[in-house]
Amino acid sequence: MPTTTAPSIAAHLGSGVHLLPQTRQLRALHTVIRNQEVRRDAFVHASERIMRMLIEAALDLLPYERREVTTPVGAAYEGLRLSSPVCGVSVVRAGESMEGQLRAVCPGIRIGKILMQRDKQTKQPRLYYTSLPADVADGHVLLLEPMLATGGTALATIQLLLDKGVAEENIVFVNLITVPEGIATFCRKYPKVQIVTSAIEQRLNENAYMIPGIGDFGDRFFGTDIGLR
């Protein structure tokens, strides 16, 4: 439930929750995407730069194994490679905005889709559509969803993946922006899921809007918000 006082999340930071380094560059990008008067092309460009950072950080949480290769000068290099299969799963429709950056970093990666929305009558998350790789349970999953507010839809999505056989510790939730309320709820329910995010807001207001917030990310990214051109 939204509150006026956000819960403490200090215990989760650095363990289950990984916040991107709050560099000046990242703050400048957030300044662009939070501006209500920004043009859509600038919004998309800045968003995708942040998404690339998030994808790179998420991949760093996955397991790697040693791999030796020979360099062009004939020397041995002790390197690494991913030791587990990886796929992406986007939460339709805002999560689809993150697919391009995932494919840019991991060409050929398979991406499943889940459409989970809040039912207007029951107020509970309702599954409308799912299409996942047949072997989704055999490796790690990067779950793509830009917003984590109250956490209801995200929790239902994680449960669906668990029901499909995905191990909880094999899920990395790649998230653009969240709030302490969502983190507290999420980590209490699924403590083994890793969250990678670029911003943790102050709190939710009485209408469950993030403060200071970013608006409806999906509408702004895909141009269905009439406020952007």
TrEMBL record:
* Segments traversing the membrane: none
Keyword Lipid biosynthesis recorded:
no
**Which SUPFAM superfamilies does its entry note?**
PRTase-like (SSF53271)
Q: What is its EC number?
A: 2.4.2.9
Q: What UniProt keywords are attached to this protein's entry?
A: Glycosyltransferase, Transferase
Example of a GO MF term: uracil phosphoribosyltransferase activity
Q: Name one Pfam family in it.
A: UPRTase
Q: Which residues form the Phosphoribosyltransferase domain?
A: 21-224
Quick check: keyword DNA repair in the entry?
Answer: no
Top-rank taxon, per record = Bacteria
Identification of the protein by name = Uracil phosphoribosyltransferase
Could you tell me which species this protein originates from? Streptomyces formicae
Q: Which gene encodes it?
A: upp
